[in-house]
Design goal:
It contains 15 helices and 17 strands. The protein has helices at residues 28-43, 63-75, 84-91, 108-115, 133-142, 162-172, 191-201, 204-209, 232-257, 266-279, 287-291, 310-314, 414-417, 425-435, 444-463; strands at residues 18-23, 51-57, 94-98, 121-126, 151-155, 181-184, 215-223, 292-298, 300-302, 305-307, 324-329, 341-346, 353-360, 378-384, 388-396, 405-413, 469-472. The chain has two domains: 18-183, NAD(P)-binding Rossmann-like Domain (Rossmann fold, 3-Layer(aba) Sandwich); 188-480, Dihydrodipicolinate Reductase, domain 2. The protein is globular. It has 496 residues and is an alpha/beta fold. α6 (162-172) links the parallel β5 (151-155) and β6 (181-184). The N and C termini lie far apart (49 Å). The strands form three sheets. A nine-stranded mixed beta sheet has the order 16-15-14-13-7-12-11-8-17. Strands 3-2-1-4-5-6 form a six-stranded parallel beta sheet, sandwiched between helices. It has a two-stranded antiparallel ribbon with strand order 9-10. The protein binds 6-O-phosphono-beta-D-glucopyranose. The site of 6-O-phosphono-beta-D-glucopyranose (BG6) has 3 residues, from loops.
Length: 496
């Protein structure tokens, strides 16, 4: 049955009425993701408790303008159940409050509003630059707006190094304990990423073969055709390594590489992910030269449309920021001894295309008389643009006259197999915050371990003065790290 016609019965046991206060409440993230996520979960009947939304703005609130911006994102979705009344009802839940500075006086309206709802949990979503996190957290506490049931949600960039990330954390922990902090990585809320857990731990078949004895290499690719959009100043201080690898790609790697957790309890899962991050082999001045490639895009064409170079996009002609990274990572533990994990990500690539490929080893001995090459099995988990799983296996070509074979894909197309609507990653993550489930959020020690590894790369790039390789926009990236649709099947990758 189509999910649009029915109300699913969700377990609402752990839900408590809440106020969600979004700092940066008129910003891009809030309008495109946070409010629509709440709207859709409510439509699906998952939030059948009282709640209020406060959008904190720095300017005088202009409700009309705000709603004009928001409504298209509520309407423009694949959720067909809503109609005008539902949008109206939802908008009534939103109150805009101006806070110009992090002072007790400026917080008085927020305080008065929140205090009207004793017994509600207060969720503070810091959708602001991280430099504002400390002052906001301190003022909330000073205004007596943080109690045991309060939560705080934060987004990257959580620093640009281990030290700066720790400093941000120290500021937040002045008001919130670790069990109240939700560090979002939206990749963990994606359906296919969630399915990775089910695929690995609900199927005996794969888990038995999930090790260096049977797996040759693993590839994790997130290629984007978008450029830096309106985020030039943020992006130019981060680059592809910090923007994508430090968080999304390493989190995907953790889910692929971790040991089976004892249960899905938050700390059980996070303990296993932490072990993987700690086992990552640090890179050094020598190994970054052979095991990493960084690149920057020049002008090119995407879908026939001419696009600017990165330097033109950011209007800063001397920038050395990388917009592409390809690298080989090793998880130095028993299970993954010497299995390379190839990570690749870039902006302004030929298309939006993300996948995880598990390349199994070749069969030990070819018994077939033709001795034609037997391709190795591959499990391909496609995240974008379509969500799909394929198992590539050798299959006999029908007909007499000896054995002829070729690789055929066994396909599970998510959209065809499940007629459900695919919720946006934020829908799942925000619901988890409301009900207090931290499984899909990074713990501070995970973040530290990820930074320690990433710093081994940034420091080595610096000390070896490693340069960007230029690549044309609309391609698969620098020649050294070539990837194309067919080659995503390859076993060996660049520089091998
Ligand atoms: C964000 C990055 O975290 O993820 C962006 O800051 C990137 O640069 C985005 O474009 C990609 O997310 P998705 O879900 O579109 O793959």
């Amino acid at each position: 049955m189509n999910a649009n016609n029915k109300k699913t019965n969700y377990n609402t046991e752990r839900f408590q009425s809440f106020n969600i206060v979004v700092f940066g409440g008129d910003g891009d993230l809030a309008i495109r993701k946070i409010y629509p996520a709440l709207f859709h979960r409510d439509l699906d009947g998952q939030i059948n408790i009282d709640y209020n939304i406060v959008g904190v703005t720095r300017k005088d609130p202009d409700e009309k303008d705000f709603f004009e911006k928001l409504i298209p994102f509520l309407e423009n979705s694949d959720h067909h159940r809503y109609h005008k009344d539902e949008i109206e009802k939802f908008l009534k839940k939103i109150k805009l409050i101006k806070i110009a500075d992090a002072t007790i006086e400026d917080y008085s309206e927020l305080r008065t509003y929140i205090k009207q709802f004793p017994g509600f949990q207060n969720i503070y979503y810091f959708s602001t630059p991280s430099s504002a996190f400390g002052p906001i957290a301190r003022t909330l506490k000073a205004c007596d707006l943080v109690d045991e049931t309060s939560k705080v949600v934060i987004e990257k960039p959580l620093g640009y190094s281990l030290e700066s990330s720790n400093a941000i954390n120290d500021e937040i922990t002045q008001a919130f304990d670790e069990h109240q902090i939700y560090r979002i990585d939206h990749y963990l809320g994606k359906e296919t990423v969630q399915n990775l857990m089910v695929l690995r731990f609900a199927n005996n078949l794969f888990e038995r073969a999930w090790n260096s004895e049977n797996i040759d290499s693993i590839q994790i690719t997130v290629s984007e055709s978008l450029g830096v959009e309106k985020r030039a100043s943020y992006y130019d201080n981060s680059g592809a390594l910090l923007d994508m690898v430090q968080n999304h790609l390493l989190q995907l790697l953790c889910l692929v590489a971790m040991e089976p957790p004892v249960s899905l309890e938050a700390d059980e899962v996070r303990n296993e992910k932490l072990k993987v991050l700690r086992a990552l082999r640090p890179l050094n001045k020598k190994s970054v030269q052979t095991d990493t490639v960084k690149g920057q895009y020049t002008r090119g064409k995407i879908n026939g449309i001419q696009v600017n170079s990165y330097l033109e996009d950011i209007e800063k002609y001397e920038s050395k920021t990388e917009t592409f990274v390809a690298m080989k990572a090793y998880v130095d533990n028993w299970r993954w001894k010497n299995v390379p994990f190839y990570l690749r990500t870039g902006k302004r690539m030929i298309k939006r295309y993300s996948e995880i490929v598990i390349n199994f080893k070749e069969v030990r001995h070819n018994i077939f008389p033709s001795k034609e090459k037997l391709n190795n099995n591959k499990l391909i988990i496609r995240l974008q643009p379509e969500e799909r799983i394929e198992l590539i296996q050798m299959t006999k070509i029908p007909g007499p006259g000896g054995y002829r074979y070729k690789p055929i894909a066994l396909k599970l197309d998510y959209v065809d197999s499940f007629k459900e609507r695919f919720p946006d990653a934020y829908e799942r993550l925000i619901i988890d915050v409301i009900r207090g489930n931290q499984t899909l959020f990074m713990r501070q020690d995970e973040l530290q371990a990820a930074w320690t590894y990433i710093e081994s790369i940034t420091n080595s790039w610096k000390s070896s003065n490693m340069q960007n390789v230029l690549y044309e926009a609309g391609t698969w990236g620098p020649g050294d790290a070539v990837l194309n649709e067919n080659e995503s099947w390859i076993t060996k990758s660049w520089r091998e």
